[in-house]
Automatic annotation (TrEMBL), chains A, B:
The keyword Membrane does not apply. It comes from Thiohalophilus thiocyanatoxydans. Belongs to the RecR family. This is Recombination protein RecR. Coiled coil: none annotated. Transmembrane segments: none annotated. GO terms for molecular function: DNA binding; zinc ion binding. The gene is recR. InterPro entries: DNA_Rcmb_RecR, Rcmb_RecR, Rcmb_RecR_Znf, TOPRIM_dom, TOPRIM_RecR. Pfam families: RecR_C, RecR_HhH, RecR_ZnF, Toprim_4.
Length: 199, 199
């Protein structure tokens, strides 16, 4: 026996969420239909609206519903500092955990030649223009402490080194090797940020 | 700093899902917007359709997108057996784990006087009519092995005892006390079902 077709479809559809296997998808479907229809309707509509309206900031590539994100548009940030991260979640983690007041650049990934992900796919052409603008005095590399994150940091460090007057730093290895920035606790992340070293 | 308003709203909305806290809601929102927009759109539309079209079976109260559910409409079930469960997930668990070929009746909850949930709220008026129909020869009580589940089973056992010719059984206490039926492993559940005893 199986569920009615629509319930089966809902269980299947819920599995697109990260970390949701068949059992939790089933639990979520029943929960939504049993007792949280209003919340479910709200979730569905919010999700559709976000998917339709949230794009990428023209300047930093972060997720944004406006052409330029709030952070890039802010006049209270130090525009000479540029912190390079892999994902929007990393921007959030750093902004929460540290006193950093500069701008960000979000790669939306990392270099991964085996998967066919090259410099253009992570916006390094745009980053190059940014570095050429003469506005940046320090690039802080805050990619993940993974093999791909390290390789990406190394690649960007070389890009920056070719421009004059730009210091390049890497956040300290307080971040455990192999760890994803998003899941590091705040104090570790904060210290790693303070102890960044010039490359 | 916070995310853009729509992203914040999406993170908030995702928290209506059971077991999803702030951190996983954030992770889900980024994941959907970063790399799973098609899946997200499909999820939203499926959820809206399910919420709109899935109601309750007229006969057993299970979730169903047709007035009478597939199981109640089937002509291959033994219509003299009626298994009483608390939730649609329990129907699924029993149908998967056991050889049971009768019908179900889904309370969509349990008696809970402190929360103001009485007999009418769990459909016992409809169950009474069902018992009066003369069609039922055995009622199998498969409510959870919790205090409320036991009390509900006891209440229904008394209802059935007032009708003539209806045997009442309770699934065996192979189900661990305090455990929720939905999470019991198949073999335990199957044995408990086979070893049900008359009340
Ligand atoms: Zn931006
Ligand atoms: Zn039914």
């Amino acid at each position: 026996m199986s569920f009615s077709p629509l319930i089966n479809q809902l269980i299947e559809a819920l599995r697109c969420l990260p970390g949701v296997g068949p059992k939790s998808a089933q639990r979520m479907a029943f929960y939504l239909l049993d007792r949280e229809r209003e919340g479910g309707r709200h979730l569905a509509n919010t999700l559709l609206e976000a998917i339709e309206k949230v794009g990428h900031c023209e300047q930093c590539r972060n997720l944004s519903e406006t052409p330029v994100c709030q952070l890039c548009a802010s006049d209270s940030r130090d525009r000479s500092l540029l912190c390079i991260v892999e994902t929007p979640a990393d921007v959030h983690a750093i902004a929460q955990a540290t006193e950093y007041k500069g701008l960000f650049f979000v790669l939306m990934g990392h270099l991964s030649p085996l998967d066919g992900i090259g410099p253009l796919d992570i916006g390094l052409d745009k980053l190059g223009e940014r570095l050429d603008s003469g506005e940046i005095s320090e690039v802080i590399l805050a990619t993940n402490a993974t093999v791909e994150g390290e390789a990406t940091a190394h690649y960007i460090a070389e890009m920056a080194a070719r421009r004059e007057g730009i210091n390049v730093s890497r956040i300290a290895q307080g971040v455990p090797m192999g760890g994803e920035l998003e899941y590091v606790n705040s104090s570790t992340l904060s210290r790693a940020f303070l102890e960044r070293h010039r490359l």
